[in-house]
Amino acid sequence: MLDDVMLPEWMQERLVSDEAFADAYHETMPHRRALLKATIARLHALLGERRITSRSTATALDTGMRAITWELRLDTLVVTLPPGFSSPSRLLATIVPAQLAGVREILVVCLRPESDADQSTEETAISPAILAALELAGVETCLDLSLQEFRTLPALLEESGQWGSFITLETGCTFIADFMSISADSLEVHCWFDDAESFSLDDLRWLYGDDAALICWGSPPDPLPEGVQRGPEEYEAFQEVDKFLALAPEDRLKEISTSAHLACSAEALGLWLWPGLTPDAFFAARRIVIG
What we know:
Strand content: 25-35%
Radius of gyration: 21 Å
CATH superfamily of the largest domain: Nitrogenase molybdenum iron protein domain
Oligomer: single chain
Mean pLDDT: 86
Low-confidence stretches: none
Number of strands: 14
CATH class of the largest domain: Alpha Beta
Order of helices and strands: HHHEEEHEHEHHEEEEHEEHEHEE
Distance between the termini: 45 Å
């Protein structure tokens, strides 16, 4: 729950209930909960922690002056998810770096389709995969809002004296905090199948979301589900194509690492990393030059 932001009564009624979180957790198959837990642990190991509130660095300039840079941690992160968003992997890659930075308040807003704008929270359909990921990550505040309702939130944060950032996962990831913006719009998952059992297509779609392009190379199951693309059978072509996320058997990872932003084996299934979105991204700098 938000400790430093007082939400108006009507917005408190839009909070997702503890019962909904619990139901989503129990609805998620145990092996998928295990995948999410392992993903959170890997993000912690890869990104590390930065649990300081501020720091300063002094640099001597050729002119004889000093440049002192103060870095201050942001108070709040608001993550907005478009209607129908269903990828727990991409969500965890967004909120865990903020947790590692020590951001105090993390608020996730699930935007409703315009056709559902007037429905109660109990009547709207947030993906259980999203609520299960939030439950496992320890994020307790999730709002179910229409776009018009969401537009009132920045003013509420400002009135509460919160200095924060907004991330939208509308198309890829757009991060805006102070004077810095990080954008990533690639949602392609390229997967190499030595045989039809290399990966579970159901788990791939569940982890990465229906809006991500899933391209299966090599010898995937036949027929492929609707919406899943078939790539060539030649491994050389798979090696050469530029990939955001590449999945392959562990003994092939070294061969594809130069053509992928992130390459994972089945043991790391579920991992996602947004370029530049690390704990350091949640610190904003102020520079003071002293003569």
